[in-house]
Design brief:
- The protein is an alpha/beta fold.
- It folds into three domains: 131 residues, Rossmann fold; 170 residues, 3-Layer(aba) Sandwich (Rossmann fold); 127 residues, Orthogonal Bundle (Helicase, Ruva Protein, domain 3).
- It is built from 19 helices and 16 strands.
- Strand 4, helix 4 and strand 5 form a beta-alpha-beta unit.
C-alpha cells in the first residue's frame, strides 16, 4: 500500500522538487500552496504524512498541526523551517510534529526523515489494531450465553464498567470470573491502561506482599534492586484479585489501607507510593461466612463489594451448553486443524446431563479432548470421557476409572472446604503444588 504525502509550501519550485523526490521513492503526493487548499485536500484524501512550511500566506504552519491532528491523530507532520528559525521547528515538535527540516537540507536527509515518520505511522497503526483486537476479544459480546442468569450478570457488569466502583465477582471455580473482569476493564475509561491479574491463592503468603507492593533495594537479604509491585504495575488501570478469600489477614489490613488512601509504603521505603487503581475481586467462597469465622475482615468486604455480581454455574445454565460447545468447537477445530462440521445429538445430550463441577473451564477441556480424539467430521459420544458415557439420566456417574474417582473426590473435598485449597490439600494428604497440578489436569483450575 502506497502512503500519501501532502506538501504545503508557497514556493512552487521547492514544493514540486519535494513532490518529484517522494514520487521516485514510491509515495503518492498532493500539493498545496496555502493552508486553505491544504485543509480541503486533507478532508478529501487519506493523508499519511504532511510536510508543511512554517510561513504560509494564510496561516502559521505550526497552528496547522493541531488542526491536522484533530481530523486524524495518526497523521505525522514534518515542518520545514527557514535558516535561522530553528526555534520554530522545536516549537512544532512540542505541538505534535514528528520532526523538522531546514530548507537547504540534502535530498537523502529528507527522504530518510520521511521514511522514519512513515515507520512511526505504521507502528501506531499496529498498536491501534492490537488495542482494537483486545477490546473485541474481551468485550461483553465475547461472553457466550442466552440464559436469564448470565444475561443478568452481563447487564450488571456493563453498567458498573462505566464507573470506577469496586466489583466483587462471586461464583464457583471455572465460571468465567476473569473473563468478566477483563470485559469490565476493556469497556471502561481505563481500557488503554494496564489490566493486571493475580491469583491470591497461588502465591505463598510471605511472597504475596512483595508481589503486591514491591520493595526498595536493601529492604531485606536478597533485595538487590527496587521491585515494582502489582499495584504500581496497574497504576491508572485495573487490578484483578482472584481468590481474594485466600488473602492472609495481615495482608487484608494493608490492602484495605491502599483502597482507602490510594497510597502505601513499600518495605524498605520511607515515602508513600501513590497509586490510582480500580479493584475487581473474585472468590468462590462465602465471604460473609468467612467473616463470622474470623478469616476475613468485614471492613474490607464492604469496601470491595460495592457491586456484587453472581456468576451462575454451568449446571444452572444448561441451555447455554450447546452455544458454549459451538464456540469451543470452532476455536479448537482451527487450532488443531481438524475439520469438524457437525455434532451428534447424543454428544450434546451427554454434555447437558453432566454436572460439570469444573464449569466452563471443564467444558472447554472436554471439547478440546473430544476434537483431538475425533476421527471424522462429526463429534459423537465416543470421544467423550467415561464419566460422561456412564452417567444415568440423573447425571450420576456409573463405574469410573481410578483417575475419575480421584477427580470427583477432589471436587467433593473442595466443596466441603468452601474452595480452600490449602485445607483441601491437607485433607487429601498431598502438597499444595500437587493439588494445583491435579486441578489443572482435571480441568478444574
Amino acid at each position: 500500500m502506497k502512503e500519501s504525502i501532502l506538501i504545503i509550501d508557497d514556493e512552487d519550485e521547492l514544493r514540486k522538487l519535494l513532490s518529484r523526490i517522494l514520487k521516485l521513492e514510491g509515495f503518492y503526493t498532493f500539493e498545496a500552496e496555502n493552508g486553505t487548499k491544504a485543509k480541503e485536500i486533507f478532508k478529501r484524501e487519506e493523508i499519511s504524512l504532511v510536510i508543511t512550511d512554517v510561513r504560509l500566506p494564510d496561516i502559521n504552519g505550526i497552528e496547522l498541526i493541531s488542526e491536522i491532528k484533530k481530523v486524524n491523530p495518526l497523521t505525522e507532520v514534518l515542518v520545514i523551517t527557514a535558516y535561522g528559525t530553528i526555534e520554530d521547528g522545536v516549537r512544532a515538535i512540542k505541538e505534535g510534529a514528528f520532526d523538522y527540516i531546514t530548507k537547504g537540507d540534502d535530498d537523502n536527509k529528507i527522504v530518510s526523515l520521511v521514511q522514519k515518520a512513515i515507520d512511526k505511522l505504521h507502528l501506531k497503526r499496529r498498536i491501534q489494531q492490537l488495542e482494537k483486537n483486545v477490546s473485541e476479544k474481551y468485550n461483553f459480546d465475547s461472553i457466550t450465553g442466552k440464559s436469564e442468569k448470565i444475561k443478568k450478570a452481563k447487564e450488571l457488569a456493563e453498567k458498573v464498567s462505566e464507573t470506577d466502583t469496586p466489583v466483587l465477582l462471586l461464583g464457583e471455580t471455572g465460571t468465567g470470573k476473569e473473563l468478566f473482569a477483563q470485559a469490565i476493564h476493556y469497556s471502561s475509561l481505563r481500557k488503554n491502561k494496564p489490566f493486571v491479574a493475580i491469583n491470591c491463592s497461588a502465591i505463598a503468603k510471605d511472597l504475596l506482599e512483595s508481589e503486591m507492593f514491591g520493595y526498595k533495594a536493601g529492604a531485606f537479604t536478597g533485595a538487590f534492586k527496587n521491585k515494582k509491585g502489582l499495584f504500581e504495575e496497574a497504576h491508572l488501570g485495573t487490578l484483578f484479585l482472584d481468590e481474594i478469600g485466600e488473602l492472609d489477614l495481615s495482608l487484608q489490613a494493608k490492602f484495605l489501607r491502599v483502597l482507602e488512601t490510594n497510597d502505601f509504603i513499600k518495605p524498605g521505603d520511607t515515602k508513600p507510593t501513590q497509586v490510582d487503581v480500580r479493584i475487581i475481586a473474585a472468590t468462590n467462597r462465602n465471604l460473609e461466612g468467612e467473616i463470622k469465622k474470623g478469616n476475613f475482615r468485614s471492613d474490607l468486604f464492604y469496601r470491595i463489594s460495592v457491586m456484587n455480581i453472581e456468576l451462575p454455574s454451568l449446571k444452572e445454565r444448561t441451555e447455554d451448553i450447546p452455544l458454549l460447545a459451538e464456540v469451543f468447537i470452532n476455536q479448537f477445530s482451527k487450532k488443531l486443524k481438524k475439520n469438524i462440521s457437525s455434532v451428534s445429538e447424543g454428544f450434546l445430550e451427554k454434555l447437558k446431563l453432566y454436572s460439570f463441577p469444573g464449569n466452563i473451564r471443564e467444558l472447554r477441556n472436554v471439547i478440546e479432548r473430544a476434537i483431538i480424539l475425533s476421527e471424522d467430521k462429526t463429534l459423537n459420544e465416543k470421544s467423550l470421557p467415561k464419566e460422561f458415557l456412564n452417567q444415568s439420566l440423573n447425571g450420576k456417574p456409573g463405574s469410573l476409572k481410578l483417575d475419575e474417582i480421584e477427580k470427583h473426590h477432589i471436587i467433593s473435598i473442595l466443596e466441603k472446604t468452601n474452595g480452600n485449597k490449602t485445607k483441601t490439600a491437607e485433607i487429601l494428604g498431598i502438597g499444595l503444588t500437587t493439588l494445583y497440578r491435579k486441578l489443572q489436569v482435571y480441568g478444574l483450575e
